[in-house]
Amino acid sequence: MLKDWFCEALALQPGEELLLPTASKAEATRLRNRLLKLREEYPDQADAESVSIRVTLVKRRFFVALRREPLSPTVAFKRATDGSIVRMTLSSHERLRRTAIQDGLTAEQIEEILGSAEDEHGSKEEEPK
């Protein structure tokens, strides 16, 4: 049943939230921990990480909140020493390389795969500046 609720949370629009009612704070904490474990085991980690899981109190009742976060895991913000904030993104080429490394592919296999993908699309993807 928890897997079904987690899948429902994945289908939410960014910023939407799913609230699962619980009888107590202890039950909410147990449920949250089980959902965190489920999220950790989910095959598509980039998608799974877009769902935040927390315990919340609404009108004196405990809930576990599953919220679809609006930001992509490929977007980050860098704060410079002068205090300015700059939006940064990872290129799809770099994401593919990191995923391939996590999947245990060798450097030769990765270059072969990325090289054939570049041939299909014409040229290498430019890095964001």
Description:
- The protein is α+β, with helices and mostly antiparallel strands and 129 residues long.
- It folds into two domains: 2-68, no CATH class; 75-121, no CATH class.
- It has five helices and five strands, in the order H-E-H-H-E-E-E-E-H-H.
- The strands form two sheets. It has a three-stranded antiparallel sheet with strand order 1-3-2. A two-stranded antiparallel ribbon has the order 4-5.
- It starts with a helix and ends in an 8-residue tail after the last helix.
- The model is unreliable at 120-129 (pLDDT under 50).
Task: Offer a concise description of the structure.
43% of the residues lie in helices and 24% in strands. It has 129 residues and is an alpha+beta fold.
Notable traits:
alpha+beta, single chain, 5 strands, 5 helices, 129 residues, 24% strand, 2 domains
Beta-strand portion reads 15-25%
Separation of the first and last Cα atoms: 45 Å
Q: SSE string, helix = H, strand = E?
A: HEHHEEEEHH
The count of DSSP E runs of length 2 or more, i.e. the number of strands, is 5
Strand order of the largest sheet: 1-3-2
Largest sheet: 3 strands, antiparallel
What is the SS-derived class?
alpha+beta
- Mean pLDDT, rounded to whole units? 81
Helix content: 40-55%
Shape descriptor: extended
Spans of at least 5 consecutive residues whose pLDDT stays below 50 are 120-129
**Rg of Cα set:** 19 Å
What is the number of helices?
5
Number of self-contained structural domains: 2
